[in-house]
Amino acid sequence: MSDKKGHSSDTDAQQTEGIYDLYDKHPETADEKVFGRKSHSDRRGFLKGAGLATMAAVLGGAIPFHRNMPAGMVPAAFAEGLDDVTIAGKDGLIVLNDRPLNAETPPHLLNDDVTPTARHFIRNNGIPPTAVDPDTWTLTIDGLVDKPMTLTIEDLKKNFDVVEQQLVVECGGNGRAYFEPKAKGNQWTLGAVACSSWTGVRLADVLKAAGVQEGAVYTAHYSADKHLSGKEGKLPISRGVPIEKALGGENLIAFAQNGEALHDMNGAPLRLVVPGWPGSCSQKWLTKITVRDQVHDGPKMTGKAYRVPNRPVAPGEKVDKDDFVIIERMPVKSLITSPETNSEVAGKEILVRGHAWSGDRKVSKVQLSNDFGATWIDADLSDPANDGAWQTFESKVTFPQAGYYEVWAKATDDQGVSQPFAIAWNPKGYLNNSFHRIALVVKG
Ligand SMILES: Nc1nc2c(c(=O)[nH]1)N[C@H]1C(S)=C(S)[C@@H](COP(=O)(O)O)O[C@H]1N2
Ligand SMILES: [Mo]
């Protein structure tokens, strides 16, 4: 299993397509090739079939719970992995695109309760500003307010409570890579999420000081990055949130990340952090917030951007543009951060650890399964450090014998909503909160 993406490897020299590609294009053929049977009901033939040898060789062991494994599903061992590329001040991020720069963090590098700056993902829509000067940077508050104002970062620190909070930022498109049919856009797998400790002032305090007027409906966020076209005045992104959300105490105008200046690619010197909502609400390189009397209509607010159909749709279905609604809170989700997927583990009892979150809500339970979802155990779950922080889960998982296993995680929030097994498909590939699966080879 040297090639994580499953492209032709030395274990199967005559194979022309990788298993990943094959599952992509011809799931039935792939299933037949891998398991040696056409349908789920034939699964019993698997142990005797020629597929066993192939599969065991590629995965590194037989699959004790193979009867439970749904047909047509790519084993998690093949479901992720691209080459590491280096970005200054970042550690181990996988680059998906270089212009604009987009990079995600492999789950096992997100094991810390508080995400180090070096491991916070990067999602840019345009070209970031260069040579920013925190001493002369200003933030303007205008629109439907009694006292429009322009403040330096020093003014923010002097005039408002400075607070430090652990806050989840997750891109609305995190998990897009697993949609079928494929959705256009960055093919995020699992790592467009992080929970750093941010220092700043509360957005609500600043808005209240400016005096939000009656009739305020939405905020509009502006920044100093440039559109990819380089055209003056053309904005790469300008989003906002309903005024009720903006006035929540969890949102920060942040000037520090994990006790130091923000990373250039994470919005230095000043950004919004709106936890639990699509990352796109958290404007980086923030220069202005306008309070509006209507839903904001800046770039990436309208059309199909950061929107989903207002009803469940079939995979591949064409949806009328009038049937799209703006994504608000992000759904309940969990991520296994230890052990690393595709690792070999020794011993029959393994500590499994990770994080769980649910936008604007608390997670009340995380469950783990090592038998493809047939049985589940409850993991220990920490309280969030503060509103908007993720929670950490941990549990020993026992494996009955050596072999290939998958560990699945499922979180349930305080409204009783759980992660689904299957992805609710939508045209732009947002909000994929299906179970996280890791692949483990247990050595006897
Ligand atoms: N000015 C500006 N702010 C932005 C963006 C951007 O392209 N420009 N991208 C948004 C999106 S889509 C996401 S998911 C988050 C990602 O934050 P990060 O790059 O610090 O991880 O920033 C948001 N804020
Ligand atoms: Mo995003």
Automatic annotation (TrEMBL):
The Moybdenum cofactor oxidoreductase dimerisation domain sits at 326-441
Q: Which domain of life is it from?
A: Bacteria
What are the record keywords, sorted?
A: Membrane, Metal-binding, Molybdenum, Oxidoreductase, Signal, Transmembrane, Transmembrane helix
Domain (Oxidoreductase molybdopterin-binding) spans 129-298
Transmembrane regions? 45-65
- Write out the GO biological process terms: sulfur compound metabolic process
| SUPFAM superfamilies registered for this protein in UniProt | E set domains, Oxidoreductase molybdopterin-binding domain
GO-annotated molecular function: heme binding; molybdenum ion binding; molybdopterin cofactor binding; sulfite oxidase activity
Classification via Gene3D superfamilies:
2.60.40.650, Oxidoreductase, molybdopterin-binding domain
Where does the signal sequence lie? none
For activity, the cofactor(s) needed are: Mo-molybdopterin
What protein is this chain from? Answer: Molybdopterin containing oxidoreductase
Report the source organism: Enterovibrio norvegicus FF-454
| Upper lineage | Bacteria, Pseudomonadati, Pseudomonadota, Gammaproteobacteria, Vibrionales
